[in-house]
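Usage

Read records sequentially. Each one opens with the input sequence:
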Amino acid sequence: MKYKKTLLPTLITFALLSWSTSYADHHGNDADHDHSAHEGHDHAAHVKAKPEEDHSDHDHASHEGHDHGEHDHAEAKAGPNGGRIITSVEPHLEFFVTDTRLIQITFLNEDGKAIAPKDQALSLIGGDRQNPVRLRLTKKGNVLVSDKALPEGNNLPIVLSIKADAKSKTIREKFNLNLSDCPTCEYKEYACICEHGEESHEGHDH
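and closes with the structure output:
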């Protein structure tokens, strides 16, 4: 009886010690696995590598060459008679003011050369907004010419109405017609092709 009483507590103690050691070993291995393997994988690979790769390869290499190269600065050109080229319609046209202040419209091909008009219909309103002048443009040879002259003044608001043919929608081109000489090129301000500042180009679209 005395031997059994002594043996039982000893076996219980041994069992508890074995279970504690096994539990500690198991969770110690889990801890080593979670913090060493996953920390290296999650933070190094996924957080740092991806943004640096995208930013350096895509943003600067491709976009800098594209945005600031060919498309930003198109060279301005005057028409064959020294007038203003209007590109909102096809074919493009040249708006030119003659020495007698008549409006002359010349249609242009893709090379900027004069071509004969077809079924286009154009009209113009200009001058003082309180008392505007209305001009009709009719075919004269290979150009369209206004039926009367513009009113006096070197800076006139203009609304040019353009129809490619009788069925087409009317396109309106609005601008200030500045008839002063450009100080730095051979054209009038309304057809100027140089860049000498916004103050000198008042009312001129560039």
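Summary fields computed downstream for this record:
- Residues 68 and 109 are 29 Å apart (CA to CA).
- Residues 26-33, 35-56, 58-73, 198-206 have pLDDT under 50 and may be disordered.
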